[in-house]
């Protein structure tokens, strides 16, 4: 199990499109991924679970990965949430 | 027997059994199942989701192609929601553990998420509830299609009852089996009202929840003239309305002789009488009532009917069909007029606080260049087989006309290069329905090929009254001096520039106003087909010079009340002079 805390770079937070990108990425991996914010937890493969975290720009979220590819998964997710989402242009 | 009253949306009378057309997701029935049925319900749920997924995927691809990845991303999110564990797993576990049917388990799952989202502070999250509801509708509809496929056919003529009816729902109706319409929502300018008038059947709208309570199969009597619905009428009421209905049919048969005759006044002034068309099914009616062409072809239904944006080829096919059916007679195709009261979610037109002043008509089209160009290309191409005209709605100034003409020029170049057949000299005109367009009608007239007055909106905007608001409905006055001056001014501007001017709003079909429109000098009047004979009759009876005199008097009136009174007295006096029925000469 790996745990990392990272900052949300998306200017509008975990809105649906951002959540969608996280879900898409997480589904590539076998690991179970949970994201926590302010005492709430969401499965990173659930777009609505993520959206309901309502993590805003600059929020510190905890990512927890468990599984055979947890190292890769956590690295890619941190990069997505803290860097790539900064220029969120929808899903593509 | 009990009476309900609503908005008189289309005139006429009917007596017949109630037939409900249920709008999706009205209410989902919760049904207990036995443990043996869990597998069946699971399969039903999976089938409905699969159906919804197919629709969404097709829609996403289409949007991505036509509008770009941003628009497609919204659908992408819905696809992800559909597969979300919060929806999928909880629905399946509800079916299994609570032993309930699939649709109620699904609706509960969505309801839970909505509740959760509702409790949040973030505005963006709450906005997503609309996406969820949209998704819910789509899946529930997939369930429903399964049900209606099993439902028995509809053999007997009936009164169609619904909360509201969308073009896609009315398009499938068999016109011979519809005696009338009763809806909870909508008013005299709603889609149902327009359709009902052109089919010549009564409609009563705006019953506010009482319509869907009518028991299916029970008899109902309809008076579309006053907006009354009588549930389970007694014999006397029934006979009375049947008799009125019969009389109406007789009168309209009497006017049949007018069909082949021109709309010419005794002193030789001719007016083109055209039909407003929304659905292809209305074309037959238009021809049978002697329309000289289509003065307004609303193209929205085509967009609303499909779950996704129709392709150029689909549009070419449809417009071609209309032009061929009209056999060389002129057809004015109005480009997409979404926004205002006509919202289509997939097109990206959202509900706005002030929709009539918002993103609608030509404004919407110009900001969706791919969509707009596709439609213009289709109209040009279809124009190869008939007398097509292109008309743009909601113009508020020259810029919009010029921008459209630029697109038209590009389209012509493209089509030439690609070797398509098309109508190179297609007239491009505008709808005059905003006060600003009316004020600069002279300038607009110099640069377009024709103008058609959209009187519904022109009245609404000029008198600053929301036509959907009952409290200000009394302000809807076609004879208001401001309206008459406006129309007069637009017609003169058009004629000074040497182009024709028509009118295609609701006021075109009011018998008492026909003379006024004639006197205002309109070259073309376009109306719902059922009104054509009676308007033609007025025109054939009225000398143009006389009508002009009436208009001059009206233009001089101080108030709408004065104008109304004068016209009523005048019409009555003429009626008295002519005798009760008015014999055809």
Strand order of the largest sheet of chain B: 1-8-7-3-4-5-6-2
Shape of chain A: globular
Give the neighbour order of strands across the main sheet of chain A: 1-4-2-3
Provide the structure class of chain B: alpha/beta
Kindly report the average pLDDT value of chain A.
Answer: 85
Structural class of chain A: alpha+beta
Distance between the termini of chain B: 45 Å
Rg of chain B computed from alpha carbons, rounded to a whole number of angstroms: 26 Å
Indicate the percent of residues in helices of chain B.
40-55%
Which CATH first-tier class of chain A would you pick? Alpha Beta
Parts with pLDDT < 50 across at least 5 consecutive residues of chain B: 148-152
Oligomeric category:
heterodimer
In the residues of chain B, how many domains can be counted? 3
Quickly count the domains of chain A.
1
What CATH architecture of the largest domain in chain B do you see? Alpha-Beta Barrel
User: Over the alpha carbons, how many angstroms does the gyration radius of chain A reach?
Assistant: 11 Å
For this structure, the CATH topology of the largest domain in chain B is TIM Barrel
